[in-house]
Amino acid sequence: MAHPTGECHDSYVLSAESLSAVAWSESRAMIRLQHADIEKLLQAAEILGEQRTLDTFPMAAISAAQLLVSGISHAYTEVDLTQRRTYGLMDPLDSVPTPDLIDVMDAFVFQHPLITTFSQTQTADAQMISDFLKLHDYHRLEIYGDFYRLLDTEDQLAIQMETPSNRVVGLVVNRDRASFSERERMLFTLLRPHLIQSYRNATALSLLDDMATASGQQAIWVTADCRVARATYGVQALFDSYFGRQRVPGAGLPDYLIDWLASQRRRDGVDVRATQPLQILGPDGSLTVRFVTAPAGGLDMLMLNEQRSMFPENAFATLGLSARQTDVVRWVVNGKTSAEIGELLGMKSRTVEKHLENIFVRLDVTSRAALVARALQSLDDLGDHRTSTKSAIVLYSARDVDEFRSGPTRTQANRLNGSS
Fold it and tell me: Among 93-97, 273-277, 306-310, 392-396, whose mean pLDDT is lowest?
């Protein structure tokens, strides 16, 4: 199935000026919205305009509906027309007397006049059950006797949309009498484009969350004033670890991250691969931040990729090296090249090599592999069995490490360094 079409545009903007002249015709009495109606509609559109995933979208949609039209209950529903399965959320939750009631809806879903009509027409208008059925005809239906009667629902107002997965999404207001006005119908109809766009946004953001989880990367969307508007699931833990406890979304970025972001924004139009990533060291690893410029009118995005160290920050403090030299050793043991260590520590690769030369002299070793063995031996000497020399198998063969523990020859050192 295609995305909802026609009345919905990605650039749809709701304003008081555009609504003040809106009128309802279609063979009904002319309806003009009052200022209070426009304010409520703007608030509802703002709720739907917030960035969120599909997990929180249903409750946000219900909140928007509650602002516009009162009822004994409000619901968000998704009906799978192929599988004849219904999914939904109702507020208040105790409106549903038993969880098994949803199975009744599944059984009689095609008796619902609003769902069957929408599946045939894809109408953009809000509709009521009373548009199609007189009360006594409605009461004869099994879907009323076994479902809506138990919910005290005598009439229902709904807007609906179709998804690419052949589901009909509905936002519903239930009442215990047929009393919806044409003004309420109009308000709900005007909400529909925002519901559609919000659903599309939530779908896209949920996909990004899934991709972030699969790739090990996280993303945050940043406003023009450097506040976090939206973040994938794992960002909060990264903020806690690298920036101190800070609430996201809604939080401002740390000052040094703001300065870096400002420099990236000045490079507007440059391909993301050419921008300079930011490297931040933490107690248990490093965080790489990359800037993705936003389309016109959109939010900039920062991609965050953490590399975890196998060893805590002070693991090799007993080697008697300076703090900077100890950092270099830790990343050598983690298998990083001089260029990678330079990026992590904010220095040139030649500076890393100079540090390594001094470290080799200080520890009386002649190669990286020998340095790894010496560093790991220091952990064994402390009796730290959580990170022992066995960890080095990940980086070097066990035989090579054993050879260097007993003193490597120059040929062995050259071979492990990649030289002849």
Answer: 392-396
Provide the terminal-to-terminal Cα distance of the chain, rounded to the nearest Å. 62
Average pLDDT over residues 236-243: 80
Cβ neighbours, 10 Å, residue 107: 14
**What whole-number distance in Å separates Cα of residue 364 and Cα of residue 349?**
22
Please give the helix or strand (H or E) that residue 121 lies within, else none.
Answer: helix 113-121
Residue 151 has pLDDT above 80, yes or no: yes
Q: Are strands 278-282 and 228-231 parallel, antiparallel or unpaired?
A: unpaired
- Asked if residue 375 has pLDDT above 50, the reply is yes
Beta strand 167-175 with 73-80: parallel, antiparallel or unpaired?
A: antiparallel
- pLDDT one-digit tens code per residue, 328-372: 888 888 878 888 888 778 788 899 999 999 999 999 998 888 888
| Phi, psi for 291 (deg, rounded to 5) | -100, 130
d(C-alpha 399, C-alpha 393), whole Å: 9
Q: Are 110 and 116 in contact (CB under 8 A)?
A: yes
Count of all residues that appear for the chain in the document: 420
DSSP 316: T
> Which whole-number Å values give the CA distances from 141 to 84, 145, 149, 301, in the listed order?
18, 6, 10, 52
- Residue 55, pLDDT above cutoff 90: no
> What does the alpha-carbon distance between residue 241 and residue 224 come to, in Å, rounded to a whole number?
25
165-176 as b/e, with b when 16 or more CB fall inside 10 Å? Answer: eebbbbbbbbbe
Residue ranges of alpha helices (H) inside 146-279 are: 182-215, 235-243, 255-265
CA–chain centroid gap for 14, Å, is 25
Q: What is the pLDDT of residues 175-191, one digit of tens each?
A: 999 999 999 999 999 99
Q: Could you tell me how far CA 159 lies from the centroid of its own chain?
A: 26
As a whole number of angstroms, the distance between CA 47 and CA 52 comes to 10
Rounded mean pLDDT of 77-87?
88
